[in-house]
Amino acid sequence: MRTEMKDDTEVEVSNNGYFGEVSNSSFSSLLASKDRDFLLSPNGAQVKVSDLEGKVVGLFFAANWYPPCRGFTQILVGIYEELKNSDPQFEIVYVSSDEDLDAFNNFYGNMPWLAVPFSDLETKKLLNRKYDVEGIPCLIMLQPEESNKEDGAVLRCGVELIYRYGIHAYPFSKEKLEQLQEVEREKRENQTLTNLLTNQYRDYVLSHAEQRKVSVASLVGKTIGLYFSAEWCVPCVKFTPKLISIYEKINHELAETGENDEFEIVLISSDRDQSSFDSYYSKMPWLALPFKDPEIKNLAQHFDVQGIPCLVIIGPDGKTITCHGRNLINLYQENAYPFTDAKVEMLEKELEEEAKDFPRLVYHEGHRHDLNLVSDGNGGGPFICCVCDEQGSSWAYQCLECGYEVHPKCVTTLGRHNNVLLGR
Fold first, then answer.
1. What mean pLDDT is predicted for residues 96-101?
2. What's the CA gap between 90 and 52, in Å, rounded?
3. Most CB atoms within 10 A, among 59, 149, 247, 314?
């Protein structure tokens, strides 16, 4: 816990993202100005700021020009409408970062909640500064005043909670978050492949290759990859052929060595219609949950999947090995199997040894600057390879002038010129 000064108000800030007791910060002092005591409603009417007293209020910082804001807004609209039907003591206020009034009107026209007028730049600046809004979309949840408190807690991670828990995060209080975290902890401890992939209506997954249903019970004891993907997603379409190749290589090697182990993948589809699902899945050699199965949403929330493609690896005991299977595939290909910490540690050590022979400087064809060898410890870190468009970490060749980065494996030596290794 630490104490900070924000707008001349003393605030306690805890490590879990909450502000504690905040004095002198009613909704009127936050959202009204000396010239305005109202907010805009979608139909153009003015709503008194004082009408928010006693409600749970979300301050939604976003802008039309930023695609992640548009995507999250669609999700938030559904949550808002469902909550308003069950509890009218909930409201959202849009705090715009739009570039002009037309952009504001176009974006706000898709929202069913209130908004700070676009013209009130000063209030928007004060709110951004007060809550340290460094990126959008951002959803700050404010609790209503209570009789035994000056104010409730302020929750900063509303976007994350909506993605992770949906409507179940309401009323977005510290107590509710602790309850959800405890439920998650228990689910992780009691996690099995069966309770992940089945429900009371279905105990199977699909196998299009054999036109049959495969019992989830028959998969118990195997290493399973849950592949969150969709045909409309360009990175997914690029990654899927690589994953198919790795999947086939892993199972071929397991069959050759006679190891008592099997690797299977289950598609968890985010496709928007049945025909897209059928078309996409027809290219894959593995299993799948049925299109629009209710467990798809539950799995995405359980593993906190915020972007696709995503490959979650489940071990033979039904516990999660890693949620970063895609990254491990990109780094180590089939050698990543069985994706355990011990195997990754061994591969990292091998890569460290190989890196001793890597040239420290390369010239990469198609880029105008020399590339320097970097690692996590000397300026490197997670990146997207500019050659294969896939994730990478650990070692990379990086342009110190413009940030261009490539996997070492994506650089092929061409020879040397003036003591610099040439690559392409």
1. 93
2. 9
3. 314
